Amino acid sequence: MDTNINAPSNFIRNIIDEDLASGKHQAIVTRFPPEPNGYLHIGHAKSICLNFGIARDYNGTCHLRFDDTNPEKEETEYIESIMRDVKWLGFDWGPHLYFASDYFEKLYDLAVELIKQGKAYVCELSAEEIRAYRGTLTEPGKDSPYRNRSIEENLDLFERMRKGEFEEGSHVLRAKIDMASPNIVMRDPTLYRIRKVTHHRTGDAWCIYPMYDFTHCLSDAIENITHSICTLEFENNRALYDWILEQVYPEPHPRQIEFARLNLTYTMMSKRKLLQLVNQGIVTGWDDPRMPTLSGLRRRGYTPSAIRDFADRIGVSKANSTVDYAFLEHCLREDLNQTAPRTMGVLRPLKVVIENYPEGQVEYVEGMNNPQDPSAGTRQIPFAREIYIEQEDFMIDPPKKFFRLAPGREVRLRFAYFITCTDVINDDDGNIVEIRATYDPDTKGGSAPDGRKVKATLHWVAAEHSLPAEVRIYDHLFTTEDPDVGEIEDILNPNSLEILTDARVELNLKDAKPEDKFQFERQGYFCVDPDSTTEKLVFNRTVALRDTWSKIKGD
After folding, report:
1. Which is deepest, 64, 69, 402, 550, by most CB within 10 Å?
2. What is the pLDDT of residue 7?
3. How far apart are CA 99 and CA 486, in angstroms?
């Protein structure tokens, strides 16, 4: 089989190479099997890239399967969002879209087969009693009083469970394995439970639903998955995965392989806690740009190529570790630096009146759209007597290393002219409201014919020839590097969002659409938010220009 020889090697690919070389498999089939009980996050992106990437590199197939066995927590909204996110990342499952619920009848028949073999029984212990009977890591469990029911009685009870004759929690189907097993997972795990809840696909056809561990391995086998790749928390469950297949399904069986999940600083990966953030209104929704969900990252301005690059570069291993969030931002900057058009946006405007520039005159200066991509061309930027600069680019009494605008000081306006501050206008409270300046008409384009130099170049926009904008500046949602530890309320960052309502941006952004991305020179990368209107554009700051990861690595 031809494979992608440029793909990075890792222990999973080594296993696949051995299986192909031995003839165990002729074709590779992987799967991405989310439970539709929430939105996908950056941790899922690692698994998506891994499973679809392996299928691509080995000329195989990757299935998208929804393990929809818990109707209490699953919604069609989540299914639609997951499909949208996988496609956004750049992967296509083609005709291979599956649902575990499609296999409910088959799974029921296989459970009956286990009962007939004497390897499963109906138990009437409560959930609390089952936990108490299970034992501990140092003490074996003890048998359920219902463990030795006859096969005939178990078959009858299981059928009656299906017919809805029993109340929720009163009966479960358990595997009969070994209550003294050192692996607690193998101490007669529950295979089916009663849930009188309408399922989003099967309606009220079922009132018993298979457990994830029973469903997952058999769904893999039904779909002829060759390698079932999952995260390390399922390592202890592999014994049950293999046991179920050995009892009721013919070989060849899928092989479960575990890898370390993605842990990212300042990032919460628990879907339960992410749902809590949404339900409590701490964030505006699953797509809040502060969320680590793929929909949140997309709204903030992250690109699929940057996330795929990040997933490839962090690789896969068997050892748990935590990746610095700055590295994800580094991958994003590398991508946006090549692709994002440049523009100028003034976030906190301060008016400058150029007194020796003719009133009513408008001229155009030429600016590069992307110095990394000459084919992106140039744009014409209107320049006039009144412009806006950043408030932070002016100080009345600047410290020694402040080289931007100050009284009597000359600076360069990007693509335009040299200007010199001549006066400062204050309001009644002493706040600076306007700067007066003069310009040197011989410095158009940003250079002086006499060779004099200035130490600062400022971005700007023309006051009457720019667009109003709202800009949302984001920071980490949490104050601690490991937000999965502790109560959410205690670790929230009160400064995770700053909204600037009076920003101004260049006219070349008038046709910008949601998810369009730009570099605001000297400010960072920004993405148009869906909240934008024809009256006012709304931008999310995707990431600042300063690359802390490159600094850490000494680049």
Report:
1. 69
2. 64
3. 35
